[in-house]
Specification:
With about 190 residues, this protein is mainly alpha-helical. Helices cover about 45% and strands about 5% of the residues. The protein has one domain. The longest helix has about 35 residues. About 15% of the residues are buried.
């Protein structure tokens, strides 16, 4: 698993099931207003950590392969419906993000795209570690293409992926045997 990521979602969050009192909510609100009055440009424009001065690149249109449903389906199957970065299972009925590894929308190479969870998509887009995540995503895609579970995934996700691949292989073998039997019967009849 990514060594710096600690899952604090849901009931693992220390504040899970708790609520701020009305008094605390009001104090937080007052402090936020006061802070933004004192720092009107806080994280705005080029002071934002995700600021990109090259606006033409940021708002450039995506190339056709990025929207290709056949390619996306093949990538979904290659990743076994899992986040390429964490290995967490993606819900096909919920939003997930299809990401360019090198942040270059004009690079339409199919090996430059992959599915990640919205959470990890936000993490990937932090300026400080873009190259670090790019290397992980590219390596993880290579591992999957070679039939291996990526090393950056947690042990649990690697084991689940391997188990899914064995089940899929067994199902493919069973279907191939049935298809061959059916072909033999048709040959005998013919």
């Amino acid at each position: 698993m990514l060594e710096h990521y600690i899952d604090r979602s849901g009931d693992k969050n220390p504040f899970f099931g708790k609520q701020h009192s009305e008094k605390t909510k009001k104090l937080i609100s007052i402090e936020k207003i006061k802070f933004h009055k004192e720092h009107p440009d806080f994280q705005r424009g080029n002071k934002n950590p995700n600021w990109n001065s090259n606006r033409a690149v940021v708002y450039a249109p995506y190339e056709p392969n990025f929207y290709n449903p056949t390619l996306r389906q093949a990538k979904w199957e290659l990743q076994s419906g899992r986040c390429l970065l964490s290995g967490n299972k993606l819900n096909p009925y919920k939003t997930h993000t299809y990401h360019h590894f090198d942040w270059d929308k004009s690079n339409d190479n199919p090996d430059n795209h992959g599915f990640v969870t919205p959470h990890f998509h936000g993490i990937v887009h932090t300026k400080r570690k873009k190259e670090y995540y790019k290397k992980i995503l590219i390596q993880n895609l290579k591992d999957l293409k070679n039939g291996k579970a990526p090393k950056s995934w947690s042990e649990k996700n690697r084991l689940l992926y391997q188990q899914e691949m064995r089940v899929q292989t067994n199902l493919d073998d069973i279907l191939n045997k049935k298809r061959k039997k059916k072909e033999k019967k048709e040959i005998k009849k013919g």
